[in-house]
Structures are given as structure tokens and as C-alpha cells.
Design brief:
Chain A: It holds the Pfam family LepA_C. The complex is a heterodimer of chains A (666) and B (480). Chain A is of the alpha+beta class and 666 residues long. Helix content of chain A is 23%, strand content 31%. In chain A, strand 24 and strand 25 (509-517) form a beta hairpin. Chain B is an alpha/beta fold. Classes of the chains: A alpha+beta (666), B alpha/beta (480).
């Protein structure tokens, strides 16, 4: 599966904090004394600290009016050093102790460890003493609001960013501007954030900060004099980062004496506390015990706990205008906590914050137990997983080929991948997932419209004629060395892409912008892009509108019987080619059977490609010499086990892998 | 090395097994609908066959001149020292201490084998396999037979088979063996082309084959079998047809046709890949099998088992014991016995086998099951073995032992293959039940199936050719 990460490494040091993960119900909330270090360092917000240095003092947030608050995030292309920089800033402010990040690293979810990504963002509050020449030092409250690393979660990213007023745009001094740098920049730019450009890894031998500065100027029109040069690894230049945050990024603009309005920008499920919501107080203030309502769901709750992430959940009893923290309301499922929702005091009337969008599922896939009898186990596993990830939609469905299962909707490909992987790894459920598909719309001559999330649900021979069809598209950003431009342009036009922009960032690098049908990038686009550019291209995309298209349903028939789980929707112009390829691939996947197997691809009743697998000729037992049957029996047992890895359609055995691998085009 | 299924080998030997008892572990599915009477009457049905005393013995005589290139059996190659151009009678095997020592060990094993049954019927079949048993001097064969006779008793009309290779015996030796009671000869011809014999490392040529056939006939052995191997490297369809024709012309009462299996660790295994030149393709190899079936049946042989053909009245009684899942003793290096429900393989190396015999004498080795079996194992054994035969699987008996529901499930799984003709369905008069009729019956209740369908068998040759596929389907019914 080509995974299109705009992934970031997790903030290692705050990893153990209970709020750090999307799917954190796996481990109970542990308290690690190392992580509350820093609270009792003198920040001037508590006079008790000297009297009782063992107990962390209560944090008095009233010391931090809006002008003493800065909310910012760090945005970067994968591996440009976002996590390391975040670690350093937290160490610098005493939020975490230096060198104590690593042990928590081991506690990462297997899926995150393997992929080096953050599935869910985390956020930390830091206290910082800003020393300016000839002035009294002044205490600031800085909220570092992390964003999920991946494009699948771009809406979540935009909500996290809308809780900020500024962003550190981190670029690798050797690699320069990459696709995610561009995508992130525009998200931040659209959110009206102040950008603080940071060139990282300047200690590398191949670092070329001047070239990167020039790219930042040409791509984003950023002032080269304002670029900070740092090495988060060696600490070089780090001392300038937080002063720049304080000087350049404006304080949150809210009105403190206006009714309470909070932005819900993240949530997670905690086994002991229930749902924990991350909020940013836009206007007014919140106290423990307040009654609050959620605009999108129209639900009301009592605030049972309120506090900040430091980096652990730390009760403060209140949150004031401009501050960022968490609330616990006894909410049972994260489905009630809609990202981007506006929270306000019950019985007051406020204008909801702009930009709320319900979750949009862009990729769908069927999930079936590999062993048909395991449906109960799969149901249980899916329930457990979705309890913590409200962004997956789940509906029961039945396939003639695969039996009972679920149709799951995902934000994007990585989201889907992670879900499948977690299902197998954490719940030990062997699943067959069908070819991912995107949501299409079909219109018929009688004026009716059909939304299709499963190609099998589209009638092969409809009663009324299809008059129009629409498919979702994306705007893709690709940055690559100029020598690969030809190959990439070919790839994009082969994938029905429309070129929107073609610019040289500098002498060697090209920036391409394409509108592409989502379907065309869903399976193997990124893999293909990497292979034709020797891995040098970076890629990112954002959702764009639906476009009118000429779509047809392609059925796959085995010995004349359509296999619902192999049906797919393709563009009419590509149908013949795809049909031919599918038939060819199936021929390789399906082993010889006792009968001849005819494989056909069809649009409606028209066969567009066919091939046959000739019947197995011989599969005979050897002699059982001297009555020794044990060896032969083992062979037969093995053969029987092999059949379990198959799904039977009619009399044809299809290996599990075929269902998900078949659409990977070479 | 030791392929046992349940009991530890060196657990102490307890003389007699306890009262036979069936373990119904992990078998609830199979038994849920079987009438209680079937379980109560268990002593008479398929599930208890293994509990009776064996009346057959396999005796392994592992000596060969040299190892054939396809062979992975436990054999002991004597080397060229004992091969000479002298007439058979004057060769040195008489005095080869390796043979003498081995046979002494074998005799010790037989003697140390304590019978553990209430009754001890005489042996009805004895099979000398190898190796090349015909290399063993008759006086040593005599010693083995005497030992068997005194230990278990030997029916006067017992079938006593011996595998013999061309070039290892003359008329006198054969006469002598016949005098000892050997009444069935299995002649390892394998091919009628010198180049093929040479390519597979056989220690004889075609001229020795003709000589051996002459000797067998001259000695008046009526019951003799010829072994042939198909799918040898470089073998063409013409060669195979020639071999079959010459085999038929020499009029053996039985023919065994083995499809070459390329085993790991053999010379062939190291240099050849099945289906790839110089081995015939899968299609050619299937063609060889079909040719054998049609030519031999055309010549009046009954194809009574996947690889066995016989003239009327000349089926190999010993091998039928295997296909019926009946118990049998086994003695000698690497041999596999099935007694008291336990399939037990002896060590394949001489050193370990020697220790095994000593343990057996001390009562420290156990080769005999205590009657406890996993019913699923029994059911799959019966399926696998029955389907090798032209008689097929007898469903009534099988249903009584394992439940009608299982029979129905097996029928259901085979429905498409009855339709395609790979499986033949027969009524109790062994008249074929056509696929439409079968389909209707399978849709019906279990009783209806029982009344109208008595046997399922693999069709010759199409079903036999795909026996692995078909049998493993039924395995899936027994233990999903």
C-alpha cells in the first residue's frame, strides 16, 4: 500500500502523557514522576513553591492574561526535525527533563513505531521566562499545539492550527522545501498564522541554508532576514527560537469579558476519565463545575475537570481567554466530541466559531474475517477500536464471496492502513480487506441519484440509464528534482490529472500542482511516484471538489459468476486496460483448480477481457510405502490448511491476498 | 526421525493395554448427531478396528547394492565389494556380517515384541520390503520366518511377499525362498530402457530384467507383481508405452505403477525440479498415468488402488490391510507399525535402531498404542486410505462410526466434483448414482442420503490423478 505520509515523529518526551495518542485505551494511564518536573521551578506564578518543594504547586493561570500567552505549532515535512525541536523547547523550559524522553518511546504503539508517524497530535503547555535587555524578566505561557502528521487528517490539522496564532515552519537545511512544507505553509497561511521560518540541521555537512533561504523567499515570499538558523540536535541557535515566538507571534485575540467560546480541537478516550477534550478558550473563561454545551451535537455537560497539558494532564480548576487545555465532562464516546465544534456556557447564546465540518470519509474498504467463523471476534475488535477513533465509519455489509463483514469509511489511505494494522496487531484478528474505493455519485435518467461507497452496490445492468457520474478529486503538490519532471508529468496525465501549476523553486527543483481524481491516487500512486523519481519526489494532497466524470462499473466474473468483492468503478476510457490487467493479475493469483477457470472482466453484459486457467492435471498421492502413511497425511493436512487461506466463489478458490492486492498496478 | 503421533516412545511398557477406550476429544462436531447406539456398539465399527490384534507383518530388509537416485527410504548400501560378476549363488552376501548382524537384530526385535491382546491369531500376510530383500541369503530369511512363526504363528496359506530386484537372484535362490514359504514376488523392474535405468541409478539393466522374469516364470511363481516407475527423467510417452507393453507381455499377475516423487535430499531432489525438464511436465506426467490406466485395464488388470493393478484374485492382501486401516506389525529399520491405534515409526539409523531394540528388550520402548485414539485422526486416515482404492469410501459404515451429519457434509463438499466427474457416487449395488440425482439427495436429509448413496470413490483416472486435492477437501470437513 502506498502510504502518503505527511507524517511526523511523535513528541517522544511527552509520549507517556495520557493525552498523547489517538488510540490510547490500550495502556492505562501511568503517572511518571519525571514528567512533572519543572513545575516547581520558579516561574513567579506560585509563592508556595519554596515552602513545599515536593508537591507540585497549584498553577495559577490568572497570572497569564492574553498578552502573556503565545499559541503556536511546529509544521514541517517528515524528518525535517519537528520532534527534536519540540523536545528541545520542552527541555529548555523545564517541561520535561533532558534525556528522559527515551523510555517512553518504547511505549509507543506498534503501528506508530513501525511507521515513524504520529497518528494523533499532542499538545504541551510550557512556562518561559523571557529576558529582554534592560527590562525585567517576564513570565510567558506558551502552548505548543502539535498537529497530526498526515494529510488524511488535514481537517484536524486545520482545526489545530486555528487554535494557534503562529507557526514555526521548520525546513531541513540540506533537503530544502518539500511537498509537505508547501502544504503545511498554505494551511498555516490560510489560517492567518504568523510564520516563523526555521532552517534546521545547519550542522550537517551538506547543509545549504542560503539555498533554502532563497527557496523560502521564492516559494512563500518570506523575508530571508527573519529566518532562524538552528540545529535542534546540537542546540545551535536554539536560544533565539522562543524569543522570536514571543516577539513575532501575536497574543491570542479573544475578549476576556465576553461569553465563553471554546474551540474543540482534539479528543481522546481515557479508560478512567472517559473522553478528554482539548480546547482552546477563544473568549471568556471556564471554571470547573461550569455547565457547557456543544454547538454541533447540541449536547450539554458539566465540566468535571479542567486543566493544562504540562505535559501530563494537570488540573488548574480554570482556563482563561487565550489559554489552551483540556476538559473532562463524563462524555462516553469520542463520537460526541466533534473536532472543530464550538463549546459555550449552557443557556448563553454565542456565534459558533467558523470552520466546523463534519467528518468526511474519502476512502472506503470492506473488512471481513479471514476465517468466516470469526465474525463475532471481528465485531468486537472493531467496536473496541472505533471507541477511540470516531473518525472511522462502520456499517455492516454482506458479500457473497466473503460473507458477513463491515464497510469502513476512512479519512484517507494511511488512516485505513493504520486501522487494518491495529486490528491485526492489537486484536489478533485476521482480516481480508477489499480494494479501497472512493465515494462516487451516479445520476440516472429518471433523475434519481445514487451514492456509492461499495462498487458492488452499483447495479451492473441498471433499470435506468446513467446520465452522469461524479468522483472526488484532490489537489496534489509534488516537489521533485527537475530531471524527473517528464516522467512525473506522464504519470499524472496517465492518472487523469490536470496540471494547475508548474514552477521552478530554484535551479534544481520543480513544484507541480495537479488536480487528480482521488481514485487514481488511492492505491499505488505514491509508490509509483517514488519509484520513477528514485525516491526524490515529495508528495502531498488536499481534498478538492467532486468532478463530473465518465465512470463505469467493472465486474470480474469467474466461470461466469460475478465476484462482488472484486467489482470496481473505473473511468470509461481506462476500463479496457484495467479490465485486461485485472484478468491477468487474477490469473497469476489463482492457482490451477480441478476445473478450467474462466476469468472475465465485464461492463454490464459486455465482456471486455478474458482468460482461462487450465485445469490442474495431476496431484496424486505417492505410494505409502510399507504402510507408512504419516508423511503423506502431513502433506494432505498442509494442503487442507492451504485451502483455508482461500475464499471459495462457486467452485473457484481465491487466495485472501487477491482481494486487496489485485488493484495494484505494476 | 520418529514419526509417532501420541505416546512417548520410551514410556514404560505396560504389557497389556487397558480396556480399549475412545477419546472423544475435539470431536463433538462429528459425534453430535450420531445415535447413542453407534457409540455403544463401538466395538464393532470403524473406530475400533485398530484395537484388534494384527494379522499382518511388514519386515524391512534394508540392503541394497547402491542407493537409487530417487530413493529416500532407510536403506543400507552394501557397496561394490559385494557386487561381482560371479553367478548369484557364489556371491559373498552369504557371509556379509552386516547382513547377518542386522538379521540377528531384527530377530531380537521380533522376539522382544510382546503381544498384548487377548487372542493372538496367526499372521495372514508377511511382506519383506526394502531395500532389496532378495539380497538377503535364504537361510537368514528362513530365520526371520521361523521367528515370526514361533512368536505369532503363521497361517499355512499366508501371503508371503518379497521384493526382489533383477540381478540379485537366480533360480536356485528363488526356489529356496519358495521352499521357505515365499509365495509372492514383487519384481522391481521400473523401466524397460537401459538409459532410463542408468539415469536413475538402478543396479541392473534391461537384460537382467528379462532374465529375472524368466527365472520367476521358470520357478512357477504364479503370484508375482512388476513395479514400474513413470515420470522418470528423460522418459518419453513412447518409452512409457513400450514399458507398459513389455510389462503386459510378460504377464505378471499384478502391476504396481508409481509416479516418481522427487524427494528432498535425494540425488534427483538436488538436481531436478518437478514439472521441469528433463522431468516430464505435469501434463505429460498426467498423460503417463492415464496411459497406464487405460493400457493395463485394457489388458485385463483391475485398477484397484491408485498405483496398483491386478488380475482377478491377485490383489496384494498385505497392502489391502493398509487401505482398510487395519492394524499391522512392522519390524526392522525405519519401519512403521500400526498397533493399538498408534502409528509408530522405528529409527531410520542403524545405531538408534539398535538402541531401540535393546530398549524394547528392557521394556523401555513402547510401540503399541493403548487403544486410545483421536477420532478425527481415525476419520481422516480412513478417508485418505479408502479413497486410494477403487472400492472407495463406504458411507454407511463411516456414518455409523462418525455420524451421518459428517457424511452429509462430505457429500456436500464433493457435489461439484460429482458433477464434474472426478468423484463417482455408487448405490449399494455399486451402480452409479448420476450427478443430478446426487444433487437432489444432498439437498435432502441425512437419512435419504444413507438410503441411496453407499460409496464415494475417485474416478479412474481423472479423480485418482487429483486425489490430493479431493482428499484434502474431505479433511477440511473433518477438522475445519
Amino acid at each position: 500500500m502506498g502510504s502518503m505520509y505527511r507524517a511526523s515523529k511523535t513528541l517522544k518526551s511527552s509520549r507517556q502523557a495520557a493525552f498523547s495518542l489517538l488510540f490510547n485505551s490500550v495502556k492505562p494511564n501511568r503517572r511518571d514522576p519525571l514528567c512533572v518536573v519543572g513545575l516547581h521551578q520558579a516561574y513567579g506564578f506560585s509563592s508556595d513553591s519554596k515552602q513545599n518543594s515536593r508537591e507540585p504547586p497549584a498553577i495559577d493561570l490568572t497570572q497569564f492574561p492574553s498578552e502573556k500567552i503565545r499559541n503556536f505549532s511546529i509544521i514541517a515535512h517528515i524528518d525535517h526535525g519537528k520532534s527534536t525541536l519540540a523536545d528541545r523547547l520542552m527541555e529548555l523550559t523545564g517541561t520535561i527533563k533532558k534525556g528522559h524522553g527515551q523510555p517512553q518511546y518504547l511505549d509507543k504503539l506498534q503501528v506508530e513505531r513501525e511507521r515513524g508517524i504520529t497518528v494523533k497530535a499532542q499538545t504541551a503547555t510550557m512556562f518561559y521566562e523571557n529576558k529582554v535587555k534592560d527590562q525585567d524578566p517576564s513570565g510567558f505561557l506558551l502552548n505548543l499545539i502539535d498537529t497530526p502528521g498526515h494529510v488524511d487528517f488535514s481537517y484536524e490539522v486545520s482545526r489545530s492550527l486555528s487554535a494557534c496564532q503562529g507557526a514555526l515552519l521548520v525546513v531541513d537545511a540540506a533537503q530544502g522545501v518539500q511537498a509537505q512544507t508547501v502544504a503545511n505553509f498554505y494551511l498555516a497561511f490560510e489560517a492567518n498564522l504568523t510564520i516563523v521560518p526555521v532552517i534546521n540541521k545547519i550542522d550537517q555537512p551538506t547543509a545549504d541554508p542560503d539555498r533554502v533561504k532563497a527557496q523560502l523567499k521564492s516559494m512563500f515570499d518570506l523575508d530571508t532576514d527573519e529566518v532562524l538558523l538552528v540545529s535542534a540536535k546540537t542546540g545551535l541557535g536554539l536560544e533565539h527560537v522562543l524569543p522570536a515566538v514571543i516577539e513575532r507571534i501575536p497574543p491570542p485575540p479573544g475578549i476576556s469579558d465576553s461569553p465563553l467560546r471554546m474551540l474543540l480541537f482534539d479528543s481522546f478516550f481515557n479508560e478512567y476519565k472517559g473522553v478528554v477534550c482539548y480546547v482552546s478558550v477563544v473568549d471568556g473563561m471556564l471554571r470547573k463545575g461550569d455547565k457547557v454545551s456543544f454547538a454541533a451535537t447540541n449536547q450539554s455537560y458539566e465540566v468535571l475537570d479542567v486543566g493544562i497539558m504540562h505535559p501530563e494532564l494537570t488540573s488548574t480548576g480554570m482556563l482563561l481567554t487565550g489559554q489552551v487545555g483540556y476538559i473532562v465532562t463524563g462524555m462516553r464516546t469520542t463520537k460526541e466530541a466533534r473536532i472543530g465544534d464550538t463549546i459555550f456556557r449552557t443557556k448563553t447564546t454565542v456565534v459558533p466559531l467558523p470552520g466546523f465540518k463534519p467528518v468526511r470519509h474519502m476512502v472506503f474498504s470492506g473488512v471481513y474475517p479471514a476465517d468466516g467463523s470469526d465474525f463475532e471476534a471481528l465485531t468486537h475488535a472493531i467496536e473496541k477500536l472505533t471507541c477511540n477513533d470516531a473518525s472511522v465509519s462502520v456499517a455492516k455489509e454482506t458479500s457473497a464471496a466473503l460473507g458477513m463483514g463491515f464497510r469502513c469509511g476512512f479519512l484517507g489511505l494511511l488512516h485505513m492502513d493504520v486501522f487494518h494494522q491495529r486490528l491485526e496487531q492489537e486484536y489478533g484478528t485476521q482480516v481480508i480487506s477489499t480494494i479501497p474505493t472512493v465515494p462516487y455519485t451516479f445520476e440516472y435518467s429518471d433523475g434519481s441519484k445514487l451514492q456509492v461507497q461499495n462498487p458492488a452496490a452499483l447495479p451492473s445492468n441498471p433499470k435506468y440509464r446513467v446520465t452522469a457520474s461524479w468522483e472526488p478529486t484532490v489537489i496534489a503538490t509534488i516537489i521533485l528534482p527537475s530531471e524527473y519532471v517528464g516522467a512525473v508529468i506522464n504519470l499524472c496525465s496517465d492518472r487523469r490529472g490536470q496540471q494547475l501549476e508548474y514552477t521552478f523553486i530554484d535551479a534544481q527543483r520543480v513544484f507541480l500542482k495537479y488536480q487528480l481524481p482521488l481514485r487514481e491516487i488511492v492505491v499505488d500512486f505514491y509508490d509509483e511516484l517514488k519509484s520513477i523519481t528514485s525516491g526524490y519526489a515529495s508528495f502531498d494532497y488536499e481534498d478538492a471538489e467532486y468532478q463530473k466524470s465518465d465512470l463505469v462499473k467493472l465486474d470480474i466474473l469467474l466461470n461466469g459468476q460475478a465476484v462482488d468483492a472484486l467489482a470496481t468503478i473505473v473511468h470509461n476510457q481506462k476500463a479496457y486496460r484495467v479490465g485486461k490487467e485485472l484478468v491477468e493479475k487474477l490469473k497469476n493469483f489463482i492457482e490451477r483448480q480441478m476445473f478450467e477457470v474462466m476469468i472475465q472482466a465485464a461492463i454490464g453484459s459486455k465482456i471486455i477481457a478474458r482468460d482461462t486457467i487450465s485445469a490442474m492435471r495431476k496431484n496424486v498421492l505417492a505410494k505409502c510405502y510399507g504402510g507408512d502413511i504419516t508423511r503423506k497425511k502431513k502433506l494432505l493436512e498442509k494442503q487442507k490448511e492451504g485451502k483455508k487461506r482461500m475464499k471459495r466463489v462457486g467452485s473457484v478458490d481465491i487466495p485472501h491476498e487477491a482481494f486487496q492486492q489485485i488493484l495494484k498496478v505494476s | 526421525m520418529l514419526r509417532t503421533t501420541s505416546s512417548p516412545i520410551f514410556s514404560s511398557f505396560r504389557g497389556r493395554p487397558k480396556t480399549p477406550r475412545l477419546i472423544f476429544k475435539a470431536f463433538s462436531v462429528l459425534l453430535e448427531d450420531s445415535p447413542p447406539s453407534a457409540r455403544r456398539n463401538a466395538s464393532t465399527n470403524l473406530t475400533t478396528l485398530h484395537q484388534g490384534p494384527p494379522t499382518s507383518a511388514y519386515v524391512h530388509l534394508p540392503f541394497c547394492r547402491k542407493r537409487c537416485h530417487y530413493c529416500d527410504f532407510p536403506i543400507l548400501a552394501l557397496g561394490s565389494s559385494s557386487v561381482s560378476n560371479a553367478p548369484y549363488e557364489e556371491r559373498q552376501e552369504e557371509d556379509d556380517p552386516r547382513i547377518t548382524n542386522y538379521v540377528n537384530l531384527l530377530v531380537r526385535e521380533i522376539n522382544a515384541t510382546r503381544t498384548c491382546f487377548d487372542t493372538n491369531p496367526n499372521l495372514k500376510t508377511v511382506f519383506f520390503g526394502g531395500g532389496t530383500p532378495s539380497l538377503v541369503p535364504p537361510k537368514l530369511v528362513s530365520l526371520v520366518l521361523e521367528t515370526l512363526s514361533s512368536r505369532f504363528g503363521l497361517c499355512p496359506d499366508a501371503e508371503i511377499s518379497m521384493e526382489m530386484d533383477p540381478g540379485t537372484f537366480g533360480g536356485e535362490k528363488l526356489k529356496e525362498l519358495m521352499g521357505l514359504g515365499v509365495n509372492r514376488v514383487s519384481l522391481g523392474v521400473q523401466a524397460f530402457q537401459d538409459e532410463l535405468l542408468k539415469a536413475c541409478g538402478r543396479a541392473h539393466g534391461v537384460s537382467e530384467v528379462y532374465e529375472a522374469i524368466e527365472i520367476v516364470k521358470a520357478c512357477g511363481v504364479e503370484n508375482w507383481s512388476m513395479d514400474l516407475i513413470s515420470s522418470l527423467p528423460h522418459q518419453t510417452l513412447e518409452m512409457w508405452e513400450e514399458s507398459l507393453r513389455l510389462a503386459i507381455e510378460s504377464q505378471p499377475s499384478h502391476v504396481s505403477v508409481y509416479d516418481l516423487q522427487v524427494e528432498q535430499g535425494t540425488k534427483f531432489g538436488n538436481v531436478y525440479t518437478p514439472g521441469q525438464s528433463p522431468l516430464p511436465s505435469e501434463t505429460q506426467s498426467a498423460e503417463f498415468y492415464k496411459t497406464a490406466s487405460s493400457m493395463l485395464r485394457g489388458a485385463g488388470y483391475e485398477h484397484y488402488e491408485v498405483s496398483s493393478y491386478s488380475k482377478e484374485g491377485f490383489k496384494c492382501k498385505h497392502n489391502l490391510i493398509y487401505w482398510k486401516n487395519k492394524p499391522f506389525y512392522a519390524f526392522g529399520l525405519g519401519s512403521a507399525s500400526y498397533v493399538g491405534g498408534l502409528r509408530f515409526s522405528r529409527p531410520r539409523r542403524l545405531k538408534e535402531y539398535t538402541k531401540y531394540v535393546a530398549d524394547l528388550e528392557n521394556g523401555a520402548a513402547n510401540w503399541c498404542g493403548d487403544g486410545n485414539v483421536d477420532l478425527k485422526d481415525v476419520a481422516t486416515d480412513i478417508i485418505m486410505l479408502s479413497f486410494r482404492t477403487s472400492k472407495g469410501l463406504e458411507l454407511k459404515e463411516f456414518g455409523e462410526a462418525f455420524g451421518r451429519k459428517v457424511v452429509k457434509s462430505i457429500c456436500k463438499v464433493y457435489e461439484p466434483y460429482v458433477e464434474s466427474g472426478h468423484i463417482v457416487c455408487l448405490d449399494d449395488m455399486r451402480k452409479e448414482v448420476m450427478s443430478d440425482e446426487f444433487k437432489k439427495l444432498v439437498g435432502n436429509d441425512e437419512k435419504k442420503i444413507e438410503d441411496h448413496v453407499r460409496y464415494l470413490r475417485l474416478r479412474d483416472p481423472d479423480g485418482f490423478l487429483l486425489s490430493n486435492e479431493l482428499i484434502s477437501l474431505a479433511f477440511g470437513v473433518i477438522s475445519p
